[in-house]
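Hi W.,

Here's what went into the run:
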Amino acid sequence: MTPEEFRRYGHQIIDWIADYRSSLHTRPVMAQTKPGEVRSKIAANPPVDAEPFADVLKDLDEVVLPGLSLWQHPMFFGYFPANSSLASVLGDMLSTGLGVLGLAWQSSPALTEVEEVATDWLRQMLGLSDSWQGVIQDTASTSTLVALLSARERTSDYGLVRGGLQAEDRPLVVYVSAHSHSSVDKAALLAGFGRQNVRVVSHDANFGMCPESLDAAIRRDISEGRKPCAVVLTTGTTTTTAVDPLRKNIEAAKRHGLWVHVDSAMAGSAMILPECRWMWDGVEGADSIVVNPHKWMGAAFDCSVYYVKDAQHLVRVMSTNPSYLQTTADGQVKNYRDWGLPLGRRFRALKLWLLIREQGIAGLQKRLRRDLQNAQWLAAQIADEPSWKVLAPVQLQTLCVRHEPEGVTEEELDRHTLNWVNSLNQSGRTYLTPATLNGRWMVRVSIGAENTEQHHVEVLWQAMKEAASA
Amino acid sequence: MTPEEFRRYGHQIIDWIADYRSSLHTRPVMAQTKPGEVRSKIAANPPVDAEPFADVLKDLDEVVLPGLSLWQHPMFFGYFPANSSLASVLGDMLSTGLGVLGLAWQSSPALTEVEEVATDWLRQMLGLSDSWQGVIQDTASTSTLVALLSARERTSDYGLVRGGLQAEDRPLVVYVSAHSHSSVDKAALLAGFGRQNVRVVSHDANFGMCPESLDAAIRRDISEGRKPCAVVLTTGTTTTTAVDPLRKNIEAAKRHGLWVHVDSAMAGSAMILPECRWMWDGVEGADSIVVNPHKWMGAAFDCSVYYVKDAQHLVRVMSTNPSYLQTTADGQVKNYRDWGLPLGRRFRALKLWLLIREQGIAGLQKRLRRDLQNAQWLAAQIADEPSWKVLAPVQLQTLCVRHEPEGVTEEELDRHTLNWVNSLNQSGRTYLTPATLNGRWMVRVSIGAENTEQHHVEVLWQAMKEAASA
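Here's what came out:
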């Protein structure tokens, strides 16, 4: 494709996306396709000869579009919001169009330096001190894996250059909560700790980790000959957006020299609001933090920012230095390849940079406050209905709710919950995520799609009541 | 940003990229900025209020553009090509604009099913049997880490659900070559094996791993009480594009039950050419393969395809199943989150799908053959010049060359090599990557940027001669 063909088709793609974004509220939120249906519309074999680009565009409407669940839909209340704001989309498009690669600073200096600036801007917006340095990773799963690998190597005094984890005489232990994200358990297992060395610390009634339990668990492991290594604390858990009390848990962890990783993938965005900063009280004592601007804040996926105190340690764990990657600028610059797992890196900073500039801090704050208010509004409505319950504190923009008709057993209640939420999702009117809490199914309502206004939440509430009483 | 604003600015961005792509041959290939220069042009603090989008566009020209090294430049011969073909760019732009996320099949069915189709198309193009299943990862670094984690868990019989790698009674060992990519060593260390358990198997004069040495190394480890776990074989090494003989090395590995991972990040693209398939003789005996369509083939970065024989094993190692990720479609569909490290996934298949359709197999083959011919042309020129040497077989599109004036010591030769290549890079005329081979510096000429025609290689050769004799 020549640049001139690109210009022609590119304008068509831009129009197609603009039309898609401005009309998606008229479509079903959750895709209504059957398993295999999309695949069945595509040829089983690759084309030998070039196809006209118009055929590709046609398939966007006929094959792709019906197979999408619409995360940007104002009636999307599933998982957590993934607000691919249009200014950020343009930043990401630029990154792809530029086609440059960050193997080293020299291989495209702007890629590295705009990332330094954009992550530092975000640091300031979040109220973090300048002792933190940021780097963009793909997802919080990866950021947390990087954190646990860093912790492993600090506790083992860089065992990786000797016999690795398999040469440790005493098992290293990681501490989590039952409400830590599934990626935390995955990261601990992939890092080689083993499930027997992942301690699930008990939590309080609001699903926050108990510092006393953490302290006791660490002491028990030490007395039994194991080496406590790291604790993962969460601000904004996935099920209920619970907040592990940072200050006291960090005190307990630091008493025994543990690495503290703070998973603020979700609640991190709210730290641009001073009134939410209580959730981060004590965060400066941590070793690493992950914040996902690609969730609520509006950066196009993927953009997960990993903040670290001791960047030299990170580089020592992650660095490689083969001759073909050495450049004359080394020593004067950051080579971000040594700050994470992959060698090759996109120019991801553009999507964060453009988002912040096009919105300004004030614009982002305003939208987040709207969502917090919408969550409080819905919580108040639910409180007025005796057969509905809000099951966890609404501290952020997510509600855990259940419709509890009188006189049903717990098993019937589970069936009832899954029935109404699945039928509502399948209707295409909205998208909610069921999850279990204290062993029973409930429904998460995660407010905060960019186009969700209060009237959408009103429509949702009406639809929930209808579905539950159907 | 509203969809209508997006339409307006999006057209500007498309035009900007089209202009950039059609004019980049007039710019310096390697950025001529100093460390910190880009950063110094950007405000140190984030804006409180929204900035006009025109200011952002202005900074593209004044801040970003001068700070780019131009991977799409026809005079780019550095690293390996990263051909961000414009059809693929459009596919990636669509992915960003759609803003959907593949947490589960249900969270956007087309994202999963187009990925199934596109990776299967590529499988057919590469001549792989249908016993392979593909998934898109970000980079080969990640794919290789996934392979070594899979190997670790097969050898340890899923130790991750027990005491992890730290509970193994005998150390697990990984086998590589000195010419394996730096990411292989990194993956082995991050997976916890430890450098003492990474064996560097000797290679032949053409830099391919010796099967006899592999066999001997494995036997020695067994006899000394260790557990051989995995071998990484490379087709198309980074320094010289050498090919580890697959069939015999795989025989040696399989005799002892090792996991075989084939790193074809670079040479994999050439497997669409039947005349290059000798490099993969025996590949069907491997357990996993990585191929990077985002290199020479032309997919926009990031698009690394990981092929695996036993997908069930992969899922068992990588899967998580918290309640909030369960859907009614589970069991009937693929949930690609369980095929790699990150939970969230972009719609990356679009950039591969659009590339293949817009080019056709024939179009891709034609371009790759052109590059192979250009490499042979340059090799022939160099063979005619007594003071120049080609240092390794030119099997693909990369040449390892050195200018060797008479009567210089080896240390002087190193200085001479780095002098002329760095001055040539800094001139902006071209971009080459110096690297060491057998302990001495030489220069890699990696042909294959999408716009590089023979006349560009002629200009390069002239420039090299001038720089070396300056």
